[in-house]
Amino acid sequence: GEASTGTGQAAVEMPHALQAQAVEEFAEGITAGHVPSIRVIRARLHVGQPRAYLVRAYLATLAAG
């Protein structure tokens, strides 16, 4: 896995399909301004920790917007 935890590194990309899946899965919460935890994202979307962080950051921008 990825050992680097540095910010701004493009080592892990989030596929469009994953974005769409995340939005679909968590739409209700996002609408309410709620961002799911890393653990919940990993469990629901079956992704590893690096991608879960990307998904969470993405969902956070949607929830804030």
Question: Can you describe this structure?
Answer:
By secondary structure, the protein is an all-alpha fold. Helix 1 (16-31) packs across helix 3 and helix 2 (38-45) packs across helix 3. The chain is 62% helix and 0% strand. The model has no long low-confidence stretch (mean pLDDT 87). It is globular.
* Count of DSSP-assigned helices: 3
The proportion of strand residues reads under 5%
Fraction of residues in helices?
A: 55-70%
Structural class label:
mainly alpha
Question: What is the N-to-C succession of helices and strands?
Answer: HHH
Main beta sheet strand tally, sense and closure: none
Q: Radius of gyration, Cα only, in angstroms?
A: 11 Å
Query: What do the pLDDT scores average to?
Result: 87
Report the span from N to C terminus: 32 Å
Low-confidence sequence ranges? none
Shape: globular
Instruction: Give the tally of β-strands.
Output: 0
Note the quaternary state here. Answer: single chain
